[in-house]
Amino acid sequence: MQVQKNKVVGIDYKLTDGSGKLIDTSANHGPLYYIQGVGSLIPGLENALEGKKSGDILQVKIAAKDGYGERNDALCQQVPRSQFESNEGLEVGMQFEVDTEQGELVVTVTNIQEDTVTVDGNHPLAGVELHFDVTVKEVREATAEELAHGHVHGEHGHHH
Ligand code: ZN
Fold this sequence. Notes:
Elements: E1 7-16, E2 22-25, E3 32-35, H1 43-49, E4 57-62, E5 76-80, E6 95-100, E7 103-112, E8 116-120, E9 130-141, H2 144-149
Antiparallel strand pairs: 1-2, 1-3, 1-9, 4-9, 5-8, 6-7, 7-8
This protein binds zinc ion.
């Protein structure tokens, strides 16, 4: 069976950046199961997997603009430290959801100074060229329920 729209696909993968630094690997948390063609994966990876079958191995290089987007410096902002309800425990790397004119945005604290905190609304992988080493583990039909929910059920998916 080939990977195509509405099939359940299980993949093992290793994701590195342009310099070979490891970003994520399924070796840490088991294979990723998703439904092809419903927007769960970044489009560049879905396109590369289209038509593949169980056992296929592929390497996919995805430019930042086709992955998590280019970095947008306008999303980096300094805000007064007094705006944070609780200053205690504020640390670089913490993430918050904030309401903006463009809707809800997840920001990451990148710098803390005496009076100001710098937050970055870019996705942590924005501006990063993505290198995927992928092995297709399984391709199967999705159940009607999985298609209705838009995610995979069972051992490798949602339990509910
Ligand atoms: Zn479900």
